[in-house]
Automatic annotation (TrEMBL):
Keywords: Membrane, Signal, Transmembrane, Transmembrane helix
Classification via Pfam families: DUF1218
Name this polypeptide is given: Uncharacterized protein
InterPro entries: DEAL/Modifying_wall_lignin1/2, DESIGUAL
Topology class, membrane: Multi-pass membrane protein
Organism listed in the record: Urochloa decumbens
Keyword Membrane on entry: yes
Family: Belongs to the DESIGUAL family.
């Protein structure tokens, strides 16, 4: 795996996980019906710790998204030939788009949770029978949903960058065909045979 992919994954996940942790903590610090005060047809909502936790979670999620998106953009702009092309480029673009969709959905959920945990007043309402006065409060695990969406957005952003950093097939080192192998000189292994000395027959 490319070293830059590892570095980006660590940085983005660090921000995304920190954002998710704050989101999970905020879920346990949200407004409850016992926290609401009623007087003169008005509901008084106190500020809860989930208010600041949600704001910080959104900031960390935005940082993770910006880092992943800028890294992917730089990979395309400054390395147009060495990165992904064709189908891989389409996959990376789809991952980036889905990442931002999830991030925006997470930010909307965080904003909803933050607005309902801020110090404010709202008019009370009467139920359908006109017998019971109620104060509205936020239901549903909005901070938990936002935390999970933020993690999914970060993972998709990392996947997009990893796809863009993939080396095309056959982009490895190629042998140099320009040089011809050295041709050794043939050695003459034929041995020189000395002529045989003439034999002289002796006579008695």
């Amino acid at each position: 795996m490319d070293a830059s992919v590892v570095v980006l994954s660590v940085v983005v996940l660090l921000f995304a996980v920190a954002s998710a942790v704050l989101g999970f903590i905020a879920e346990s610090k949200t407004l409850t019906p016992d926290d609401i005060n009623y007087a003169g047809g008005v509901c008084f909502y106190p500020a809860k710790p989930a208010y600041m936790l949600g704001i910080r979670a959104v900031a960390l999620l935005a940082a993770a998204q910006i880092i992943a998106s800028v890294a992917s953009l730089c990979c395309v702009c400054f390395n147009p030939r060495g990165g992904a092309t064709g189908p891989n480029l389409k996959k990376a673009a789809s991952s980036i788009v889905l990442s931002w969709i999830f991030a925006v959905a997470a930010a909307v959920s965080y904003a909803q949770g933050v607005s309902w945990n801020a110090a404010t007043t709202r008019p009370a309402f009467v139920d359908g029978f006109g017998l019971l006065i109620k104060c509205e409060y936020l239901r549903g695990a909005v901070f938990t949903r936002a935390a999970l969406l933020g993690l999914a957005a970060a993972v998709l952003g990392i996947c997009a960058y990893a796809i863009l950093r993939e080396r095309p097939a056959g982009d490895g080192p190629k042998p140099d065909h320009g040089q011809q192998p050295a041709v050794g000189h043939a050695q003459n292994t034929q041995q020189q045979v000395a002529p045989a000395a003439p034999q002289v027959a002796s006579t008695v």
